Predict the structure.
Amino acid sequence: MPPRVLPLVRMSTAAAVLAALSVSPPAAAVGCVVLPSGECADEPPRLLGGWVADERLAGGPRVVVVPTPTPGRVTVELRLDRPLVDLRDSDRVIAELLGSGTGDPAGEGRGLRRDGLGARTHLELAPGALILRTDGPADALPALIELEAERLARFAPTADAVERAVDAVTTSARRRASAPDAQLVDLAVGVAPLSAVPPTPEELRARVASTWWGPSTTLIIAGDVEVDAVADRVRALWAAIPAPTPDVAPLVFEGVAPADLVVAGSRATRTRVALSWPLPIALDGSRRGAVAELLRELLVGPGTPLHRALGADALRIWSPETPGSLVLAVELAPGADPDAVLQAARRVAADLSRAGADTLTPAVERARLHLVQRATVELQDAHGWAHAAGRVMASGAPPEGIDRRVDVLRTVPVDDVRQAAAELLGPGPHRTVVLLPTPEAP
Amino acid sequence: MSPWILLLAGCWTRAPGPVPLDLAADPVPMVQATAERSRVDLVVTLRAGAALDPVGQEGLAWLTAQTVALGGAGGRGADDTADALYRLGTQVRVVVGPELVALHLPCALDAVAECAALLADMVAAPDLDPAVFERVRAQAIAGLEERALGPAPELAATGLLRAVYAGHPYGHGPDGRLGSLPTLQLSDVRAFRTAHWVRPAALIGIAGTVPKDVANQLQDGVSRLPPTLPLGVTALGLPKTPGRRVIHVQGAPGIRSHVAAGHAVDLAVDDPQRLALDVGLAVLGGPAGGRLDAVPELAAASPRLALDGADVRALRQQPALRLDLSPGEDADPVGLAVLALDALGAAAAQGVTPEEVAAEVGRRLTVLDAQTDAAPGRAHMVAVAGLLGAPGPAALRTRLQALDAAAVNAALAAHVHVDDVRIVVVGPGPAAASPVDLAPPADAVDDPVASGPATLPVTAVEETDAASVQGTTLSAQELLR
C-alpha cells in the first residue's frame, strides 16, 4: 500500500478528524522521528529535558524540581513517605484536610482559588505514602507553589472541619476494608486499623509541625518548568515557614513482622492468599532498589515459574508496590485448595532462593529488559515522573536516581540479585495471609 | 429502485459508522497527535462495543476484545506474545464501552516498530487462544459475582442501566451478565469478531512522534481487517418509562444504602442541546455540589446529578439523566429519592443563572485543556469524533464558549422529566446461611435464550408509602443475572 496518513475514506469521518485534530500530517520522510515542528530528527527526544534541583529546606521537606517533556502542564506533588504500618490516624485526617482545602478557616476559599487556576488535587493513600497530587497549567505554577506553602504554614483546622475529615477518613477506611484486594495487601504488610478516638485540632497542628514539616516529606514539581526560577520561588515562599524540630528520623523500612499467619473473612466470593517477605530496601539507595525491583519480577512477573506452578488454580497473580515488603498475592480459581497454592508458591520462592547465578542469568536479563523499557514509558509525562520520583526517593535513593535508575537496572550484577533472593526468600521469616469469602463481612 | 441503493439506505445510521460499500475497502484512517517525547501511545479504536452484543449473549464484545488482546497475535501464540510485550516493558490496555472498543499500547519510542507490528497483528490476525478465552471468561464471571456483594453505588448504577434501557442495547454493562457469560463460547467470539472487527469500523490513533514508515506499517497491518460492511447498528428507539417505579435491590448484609434514579434522554451525540443539558445538570447537582445541596433534607445524602453516557470515555448515542443519593442509616431512601426528584423538577423549571453557567463552562474548558494538552487524550477525542460523530476538541470548545443560560434552561425544560423515572434502591439483604453460590441456574447455561434479555426480573411487587410509587424487589445476584 502507498504511504498515507489521513486517507479520505469517508467524508464524514475524515472531515471530523481533520477539523478536530488541527495538526498537519507528519513530514513525508522515511526513517526519521517527526517532531511537532514537522522537522525530521535522527535521534528520539531526550528522556528529560533539563536538570534537577534538589535541596532540603532547613529542618523541613525535601524539594525536587524537574522539567519533563509535557508542554504547558505541571504536576505538584506533596508526599509523606511512611510505611502504612507507621501512619497514624492523624496523618490520614491531615491529608484529608489538606486535600479538601479545609485545613484552615479560609480553606474553602483556597479550594476555589485552585479551581480558578484550572488545577485539580487528588489525594492518594498508597502503600507506604500519603500523596497530594495537583495537576494544572504551567502558567499557574507560581500560585500553586504559594498554595502548597500555605497549606502547611497556615494549617489550623476548626473542630467542625476535623469532624468532617474524620468522617471522610472513616468512610474511606471502611471502603478499603470491604475491598478484598486492598484488605489482602493491608493484612500482608500489617496495616493497623483506625483507632476509635479521633484526634483533636491541637493534636493535628502539633503533628503537622513535627512530622509533615520534616525529612519524610517531599515537594516534587515536575513538568513544563524552568528549574532555577521555580527553585527560587520555592525557597522564597517555603523558607519563610517556621521550621520546628522534627520528631521523626529519616525513613527506614523495617519490613513486616515475620512468621505470622493471618486468616480473615472478606466480602468476596473467591479465596485470596498472600505471602509477604521483609524487604529492607532503604540501605544504600538505588542499587538495592534495583535489586528489589528485579527480585519482584523474578518472583511474580509474567512467564515466571510461579505462573506455571499455579496454573489454572490462580485466577490472578499480582505483586503490589509495597515499600518494606515483597508481597505475592493470588486470587484462587473456584475449587482450588488454598493450602496447595501456598505450598506451591513457597516452593517457587525457595527454588529462587537456591538458584545459582547460571540459572538466574536469563531470567534476570529478561526482567532487566522489561524494567528498563517500562521506565522509559513511565517517565514521559509529569504525572508519571512525579510518581516514579516519589517511589525512587521513598526507597532512599536521590532524585537523580530517576535518571540513574535505568543505568543501575542495566548494570546491577546478577550475583546481587542471587544474594538478595537467598537472604530474603529462603526458609526465613515471612507472613502468610488467607482471606476467606464471607459475604456478611462488614 | 436499485437494490444497491436499498442496501446503502439500510445501512444508514444517525452517526457515522457503516459506510458505502465501495469505500469500505479503503485503508483504516489514522490520526496522529505529535508530542516531543520518548514514549508513543498507539491506539486502535473500533465501533464494536457492548451495544452490539446479541440478546442473550451480553458480554460478548468484552470477551472478544479481551481474548484478542491476550490470546496471542500473528501466530506467535499467547505465551510468546505476552513475553514479547513483557520485554517491551508494556501491556495492552483494553477499554470496552457501550459503543467503542479501544486497544491501547503505550511504548518506548525506540521499540515502536515492534509495538506497531504486535498491535497490528493483534487486531487483524489474533490467535484467539482457547485457554486464554476460558481464563478471561472465568475472570469476568468472578468479577461479576463479587460485584453482587457491593459496593452499593456500582450495583445501583447497574440497576439503573437495566431499568432505563430495558430491552435496549444499552441495558447491560460491557462485561455482560451472570446468565449470559457461562453460555458464551470461543466460536461466538470468532463470529462476533468476524461481524464487527472490520475495516470501516476502525480508526488508528497515534500520540507521539513516530517514524513515518512505522506509522505506515501500523496502518497497513490494521488494514488487513476485512473490507466488509459492519453488521448491526445500535437500536435508536428508547423504551418508554412512564410513571415513577422503584426497584429494590438486596445487596450483601451490612452494605450501605445507595439510590440511583433517572431516565434515558433521546439526544444524539452532536445535538447542541446535549451539551446544554449536561452543563445544566452539573449546575444543579454536579460533582462540586449544586442547587440540590441547598435543600436541608437532602444535604446529608450528597445528591449528585450527571448526564450518564455523555463522557467521551463511555459515550452513548442516547445518554441518561442520573441522580445519585447516599442516604444515612435511618433515612427512608424512597422518600429521599421522591423529595430529590421533586426538588430537581422545581430547580429545572426555575432555571440557572448566566453566572452559574459561566462558572461551569469555565470549569469544563479547564478540563478540556487538560485532556487535549496530553497527546493521548487529544487523539482519543478525535477518534471518538471520527467514529461516532461526536464534536472534537475544537468544536467542543466553540460550543462551550457559545453556551448561554437561555440554551441551558431550554434543555432543562425539554429533557428533565422527573415524573417518568426509575428509582433503584440498593440496601442490605438478609444474612446468608453460608457463602453464597452465585453460579447461574443450570437451565440458563443450557439455554441462552432462557437466560433472558437484558430486562429486570420481577420477584415481588409492593406499594411504597412514598407518593404511591410502584416497586419491585430482587437480589443483587438476580440483578446481575
